[in-house]
Amino acid sequence: MKLRTSLALALSIVACLAHAEKSSFVGGTLINPATSQVLENSVVVVDGERIAAVGTRKEMAVPTGSKWIDCKDKFILPGYIDTHVHFFQSGGLFTRPDVVDLTKVRPYADEIAGIKKNLPDTFARYLRSGITSVVDVGGPFWNFEVRKTANATEMAPRVAVAGPLISSVSRPQLDLGDPPIVKIDNPEQAREFVRKLAEQKPDLVKIWYIVNDEHPVDSFRPIVRATAEESHARKIRVAVHATELETARAAVEEGADVLVHSVIDKEVDDAFVKLLKDRHTILCPTLVVFERYGRTFANKLNLTPEEKAWGNPEVIATLDVTKIPQEQLPERIRTALANPDAALDRIKKTYDVALKNLKTLEDAGVTIAAGTDAGNIGTIHGPALFREFQLMKEAGLTPMQILQCATTNAAKLFGGETGAHTGKIDKSDFADLVILNSNPLNDIAHASDIDAVVKNGVLCPADQLAAVSH
């Protein structure tokens, strides 16, 4: 006799299913962004950690002996992937003393200790948001322990990591003996550092290509080239932070495989678009992060309902700058509070460029992978992805295109054998799924209407995940 019940009831009974049973998700509408395929009245068979079969009720029978989970009126998608996060940052006000120094209010060592202690909660908040994989694009060497812990933890997303950022500038305020950002002064030093990183088997090597009057674009190009050559010789891809058009162009010309931010200083030109297409460069726009520093400092933070509900409340509480004694406020925050309209105007000007560039690149066929830069001040681990979706919609992307950015394209950025088996719903792929109550193709806002999440074949109801993350 088949065990057939509603999805909600099944989940309330089993909470998080163990791997022992084969399960069949029956009757839902399957949305597979990798192929733009929409299958009504579908069957997705999960056996252990993998998808065993996919089809429609007309094409295939539900396997005898599998747990039948009725998904009628539900929508089944691959688990979302956030391709730009930083686990060494909390998202709170005290997490970047190199940007605003509040160490007299909260010592940076205390901030890092709290972040490490809170990692299980952070992992759970990603799953609550339907995010089953993330890419940490740079942090201290203890980042590699984060990957190891996450990949051995059931209630955690899959994690790819880069180690410390190879940088054109120093950030001594972040150095507690294992710095997340390391200033590199010459090509040989870059090669030596890549060799050191390679011992940890990073998924990416990250370059922080910061340009200013003291550090012009061309002065750092030889270091970018050496980093790329040394990394590629070890079959490691290179991701580059470059937010100006000429910096991004130089990074790709010197071997960058991934650009981890939008170009925000000017509109991209045809030559740049062609360069990205010819080199098969992946671009991660990280739109949300561009507003969150300025809005936080100006006391104009615009957290979404998802962020308020699923973000860490202790982290969110720190973002109220009015709670900091006036005499302890850094000048940057005082200035923003005195003239919040100026901060909002700068954000608008950034988006006028960044959103147009995203549409240009998407229309040209450049691979766009969704990412948030979560962990930075005001950018909340987990649900920040839904603000990213809103901004991508404002740029003119369709719901299917946004879902492609957060699944199949994001899996390409994740890379490796894991990336090859995530971001889509096909036989032999990892059973990482998000089950929605409403259709995200009608409105991308429905992407957060999560009923349940399946990670590695383990099925969890949304309310169960919410309980875990509190």
Q: Could you explain the architecture of this structure?
A:
Helix content is 38%, strand content 19%. The chain has helices at residues 7-14, 108-117, 119-128, 143-151, 187-198, 217-233, 245-253, 270-279, 289-297, 305-310, 313-318, 331-338, 340-364, 384-394, 399-406, 408-414, 416-420, 462-468, and strands spanning 4-6, 23-26, 29-32, 37-39, 42-47, 50-56, 67-70, 75-78, 80-85, 131-136, 158-161, 165-167, 181-183, 204-208, 237-241, 258-259, 282-283, 367-368, 433-436, 450-455, 458-461. It is built from 18 helices and 21 strands. α5 packs parallel to α6 (217-233). The strands form four sheets. A seven-stranded parallel beta sheet has the order 13-12-14-15-16-17-18, with helices on both faces. A six-stranded mixed beta sheet has the order 4-3-8-19-20-21. It has two domains: 4-73 and 427-468, Urease, subunit C, domain 1, CATH 2.30.40.10; 80-416, Metal-dependent hydrolases (TIM Barrel, Alpha-Beta Barrel), CATH 3.20.20. With 470 residues, it is of the alpha/beta class.
Name the CATH class of the largest domain.
Alpha Beta
Helix content: 25-40%
Termini, distance in Å? 38 Å
Q: How many structural domains in the coordinates?
A: 2
Instruction: Give unreliable regions as ranges.
Output: 1-15
Major β-sheet strand ordering: 13-12-14-15-16-17-18
What is the β-strand count? 21
The number of helical runs is 18
- Class from helix and strand fractions: alpha/beta
CATH fold name of the largest domain: TIM Barrel
The CATH superfamily label of the largest domain reads Metal-dependent hydrolases
How confident is the prediction overall: mean pLDDT? 94
Q: Outline the biggest β-sheet.
A: 7 strands, parallel
